[in-house]
Automatic annotation (TrEMBL):
Leader sequence segment: 1-22
Keywords: Signal
Organism per entry: Cyprinus carpio (Common carp)
Protein name, per record: Growth hormone II
Length: 50
């Protein structure tokens, strides 16, 4: 979980640095990282609830 948060932080900082200059591939990758983090959080919650 900590790795996902660090990775998300790096992605968000890169977005701020680029200020909209990210290529389509970078934007798609950033979206994928955010979705993976969300899925990871859902899985962790499901395991804790189980």
């Amino acid at each position: 979980m900590a790795r996902a948060l660090v990775l998300l932080s790096v992605v968000l900082v890169s977005l701020l640095v680029n200020q909209g200059r990210a290529s389509d591939n970078q934007r798609l990758f950033n979206n994928a990282v955010i979705r993976v983090q969300h899925l990871h959080q859902l899985a962790a919650k499901m395991i804790n609830d189980f």
